[in-house]
Fold this sequence. Notes:
Blueprint: E1 2-7, H1 14-24, E2 32-35, E3 50-53, E4 56-58, E5 71-74, E6 78-80, H2 99-108, E7 111-113, H3 116-124, E8 129-131, E9 151-155, H4 159-169, E10 175-179, H5 192-207, E11 211-214, H6 217-226, E12 230-233, H7 239-245, E13 253-255, H8 257-262, H9 280-299, H10 306-309, H11 316-404
Parallel strand pairs: 1-2, 1-3, 3-5, 4-6, 7-8, 9-10, 9-11, 11-12, 12-13
Amino acid sequence: MKYGLLIHEPTTNLGDDIQSYAIKQFLPHVDYYINREEIDAFKSENNEPVATVMAAWWMWKKFDWPPAECIIPKLVSMHINHYGPRENASPVSTEWLKGIGKEFFDAYGPVGVRDSVTLDYLKNEGIDAYFSGCITLTLPKQKETADKGTYVVIADLRDDLKAKVKEWLKDSGLEIREVSHRYSYRKNPDTMDNRFEKIEDLLTLYQNAKFVVTRRLHVTLPCLAMEVPVMSIVDLEQKGNYTRWAPYSDWVNYISEADILAGNINYDYNNPPANRKDYLPTRNALIENIQSFINEMESYGENVTLADVKKTTYTEAEARAWQYELLRETCDKWLYAGRKLLEDYKNTKKKLKTVEEVEMKKLKDDLNKARKDAEKYKRLSERSLIRIFLSRVKRKLKSLKGKAK
Length: 405
């Protein structure tokens, strides 16, 4: 059996590569790299089947579905975004989960997801889904280094939060090391081997820290997996945080931004609390589930054909014809969505222009009033000076007349 490793080639977030790295540990070998945003365009040699663990952040386009028929998937740890045209994503909502798109999920399901929003999203479309947890929960421990326990890692904190954390740690005697998951492979392309070396270095840095402070889920979960104490700065009442963090909130030592900024940090940096163990059943089940898939794929041997493992009934031609119709429908929606955005822009510009005209008129009126007031003040000042001068002259003349007598 051949294996494909899912990647996001032009990523700007190292969290994507951490997920790919986590998948890679399960694969007996990597025969193909598969770009998640071009999942439909992938081609294997002679259309041979390629077993692929589909754990990833899905998907900007949604009309690149279903995947190429040679991809034999394990559907776990999936997150499906709900972005639209305003976030540079497609206007497709649930259309891709009908017809052939749904058959793909039904054939290879149930679908393991990593967040409650994706779970509800799929279930509402009649797709069998369950919470599998994130693939990064399966990461192995990294090697120990000589500086283990001598430093704290701060990962991707806002400047105001970072300043407060540094102030809190100033007397700890611990070195502070700052890292970021922001890195653009769009601007700095590299080989996947080099990218995975970068991830190993990053995970090793986390592994040997006294503890880690972060706001990122894909720092927190790897730290849980590697048993590294982690303090997560999360406001769970915020919708964006709640939807992603909710399934993991009971496993995490977290603190709110408000408490950080107020200096209310109830965390012992000398003896950082160990992470909770509640995540272990999810981690173990996910590892067992993926390993079972790999064992099944290995049982087919090297001479496996697509017919041996394919579970969908549609042909590749039928899938692409269905996809074409979805894409055409998407283009229409995108056109109207784009027109709406353009119309909103023009209306906003008109309102802004009106506001600017009103403000400009007010400024001109205020300026004219100020000019008139200044001129009036000037005239009054000149008159006052003349009166003062004449008064002084009169007093002087009166004085002189007195002396003359």
